[in-house]
Write a structure and sequence with these properties.
The protein is 56% helix and 0% strand. The protein has 249 residues and is mostly helical. The chain has one domain (3-190). The mean pLDDT is 93.
């Protein structure tokens, strides 16, 4: 990789940060003591991404792909922590014959997941937070911990499982499932939980969960240790009932 290549990857990440600022994307964080998520250029520098040759270009391209998909599918997502996601992509890529190709594949899978679960399909969830902060991953690992515990939250096997799960949800919706029925209003968001997920309540709840150590994957940390050893979804529901009241959507 030439110096020009390094500069191009850095510039693309700086351009991505500038684009999000110009579009007024808030990019809040769950990190204590900060208001904004880490800029992508700063994140790459912290991880020495730009020293990884072709992987630097793959990370820059992959982040553009993921961000644009997230903005399209989940424009109301509040928290934008990507630190551990990028760290995980780099770490998992190390053991691959084509590290840059692995990063690009996973980035595209994440973008595909956003498109599948977001506002463009009948699933129509409001936020990416459940995936981003490991609630989906922890539930998946707890179902078969001995086989799945070594799979990281943004690794290809879990991403492909989530794509299969999305296809299952679409089928349930088409069959007028009791838990996942069709939505009557195209502007309506799906909320299978018994607590409010309005933007104000979502922000309030997630900040409390982070403060009380009830987030399975602390994606705002480069050195996060993903956890599945607690029933995080049940704990979140219980905390929401206390904080927000039940059946307020």
């Amino acid at each position: 990789m030439t110096a020009a290549g390094h500069t191009d990857a850095r510039q693309r990440l700086a351009d991505l940060d500038a684009s999000l600022r110009s579009r007024g994307v808030e990019r809040a964080t769950l990190a204590a003591g900060r208001e904004r998520a880490t800029d992508f250029e700063q994140l790459a520098a912290s991880l020495s991404v730009l020293e990884h040759g072709p992987v630097a270009d793959a990370i820059a391209d992959g982040l553009h792909t993921i961000v644009e998909a997230q903005l399209e599918a989940f424009p109301e997502s509040i928290f934008w922590d990507f630190d551990f996601l990028v760290a995980t992509l780099l770490e998992d890529a190390r053991g691959q014959a084509d590290a840059a190709g692995y990063v690009r594949t996973c980035a595209q899978l994440i973008a595909d997941l956003h498109a599948l679960f977001g506002r463009g399909t009948a699933i129509r969830f409001r936020y990416v937070h459940d995936f981003q902060y490991g609630f989906d991953w922890a539930k998946w690992v707890r179902a078969e911990p001995e086989r799945r515990r070594t799979v990281s939250p943004f690794a290809e096997p879990f991403l492909r499982y989530m794509l299969d799960r999305g296809a299952e949800l679409l089928e349930l919706i088409q069959n007028d499932d009791e838990e996942y029925p069709p939505l009557g209003d195209e502007q309506e968001h799906r909320n299978p939980f018994g607590f409010s997920r309005t933007p104000a309540d979502e922000r309030r709840l997630f900040l409390v969960l982070a403060r009380e150590d009830l987030i399975p994957v602390e994606t705002w940390r480069l050195d996060a240790t993903p956890r599945f050893d607690r029933p995080f979804r049940k704990l979140r529901s219980a905390r929401a009932e206390t904080l927000l009241g039940i059946d307020r959507r």
